[in-house]
Amino acid sequence: MQILVTNDDGIWAPGIAALAEALRPLGEVVVFAPDRERSAIGHAITMHNPLRVEEIPFPVEGIQAYVVNGTPSDCVKLGAEAILPRPPDLVVSGINLGPNLGTDVIYSGTVSGALEGVILGIPAVAVSLATYAEADFEVAGRFAAHLVRLVQKYGLPPDTLLNVNVPGLPLADLAGVKVTRLGTRRYRNVFDRRTDPRGKVYYWMAGEVLDLDDDPEADTVAISNNLISVTPLRYDLTHTGFLPELTRWPLELAKDDQAQSAPGRQYGCSGEPSVPQGGGQP
Ligand code: MN
After folding, report:
1. Residue ranges in 29-171 assigned as alpha helix (H)
2. How much distance in Å is there from the Cα of 95 to the middle of ligand 1?
3. What separation in Å is there between the alpha carbon of 182 and the centre of ligand 1?
4. Ligand 1: distance of its center to the CA of 40 in Å?
5. Confidence at residue 207, expressed as pLDDT on a 0 to 100 scale
6. According to the model, what pLDDT value does residue 261 have?
7. Could you tell me the distance, in angstroms and rounded to a whole number, from the CA of residue 143 to the centre of ligand 1?
8. 174: CA distance to ligand 1 center in Å?
9. pLDDT at 45
10. What is the DSSP letter of 171?
């Protein structure tokens, strides 16, 4: 089994070394990771600049590693589609320093690296350590290896990745493992307004996280209860439950209505009713 390992904290982050080392007994591990921290880069890809890839000596012995001047998604695409002779059997992203829970997975480079694997048809796992202070990746690495063995044994449905968050605690202090759904996170006072030495105002994104869920099934709640959280994710954002109601909206533009074709009025932006009057009902 060949495992492509990536991250968004950069190739020199201790978390990716811990992950590569933990997965090494399970197969051939190849690292493709960004040349610098790309946290919160989301699913960005590089289209307007050249991508450079260089094989480098990795801190963990016996592991082939490539550094890329791109994003986690670039790393996975390049590895799977351009550098490796065939696509890897699994993509594992992490171990991120800090949690990737609830709404934050949308912004996460760690989760996006795994998601890129899924888009390419490769099963994937994202692993995050839910602490910034005591960065001991040992337990998270052990759990990642354990979960990868289970993925090998049972398989994953198509289009699915597992998003794992491990509390920053010794194994003895963990309350167990919980299968979860994404919780809801918001931030308070997100923008700190400051003044630079030349008197110009600038903003620095900061803020305090607010977890709005108290449902024990939410990943955010599981982590606060000292549980390892495992959430199955997919990239299809379609709200299937709303499809039937939306289908009943009169969405068709009336092609024979003169008023509808007047300049500036095509899309109902002139204050006119945007829903066609009569004849628009399917
Ligand atoms: Mn990160």
Report:
1. 72-78, 109-119, 138-154
2. 8
3. 18
4. 7
5. 84
6. 52
7. 19
8. 23
9. 98
10. G
Helix (H) or strand (E) holding 130: strand 124-130
How remote is the CA of residue 214 from the centroid of ligand 1, in Å? 26
Q: What's the 247 CA to ligand 1 centre distance in angstroms? A: 40
Query: What are φ and ψ of residue 116, in 5° steps?
Result: -60, -40
Gap from CA of 199 to ligand 1 centroid (Å): 32
* pLDDT on residue 135: 82
Residues in the chain: 282
- How far does residue 137's CA lie from ligand 1's centre (Å)? 14
Distance 206 CA to ligand 1 centre (A): 16
Q: Report all structural domains of the chain as residue ranges with CATH numbers, in order of start.
A: 2-184+215-237 (3.40.1210.10)
Q: Which two tokens stand for residue 197?
A: 């030495």
Are the beta carbons of 23 and 5 closer than 8 angstroms? yes
What residues of the chain score a pLDDT lower than 50?
265-282
Buried b (16+ CB within 10 A) or exposed e, 31-56: bbbbbeebbebbbeeeeeeebebeee
Going from the C-alpha of 9 to that of each of 1, 44, 186, the distances in angstroms are 25, 15, 23
Q: Contact 124/201 with Cβ under 8 angstroms?
A: no
Rounded to whole angstroms, the Cα distance separating 57 from 111 reads 25
What pTM does this model have?
0.89
Cα atoms in the 13 Å half-sphere on the side-chain side of 143: 30
> Cβ of 212: how many Cβ atoms within 10 Å?
13
Residue indicated by tokens 């979860």: 180
Q: Compute, in angstroms, the gap from residue 99 CA to the centroid of ligand 1.
A: 9
- Give 38 Cα–ligand 1 centroid separation in angstroms: 7
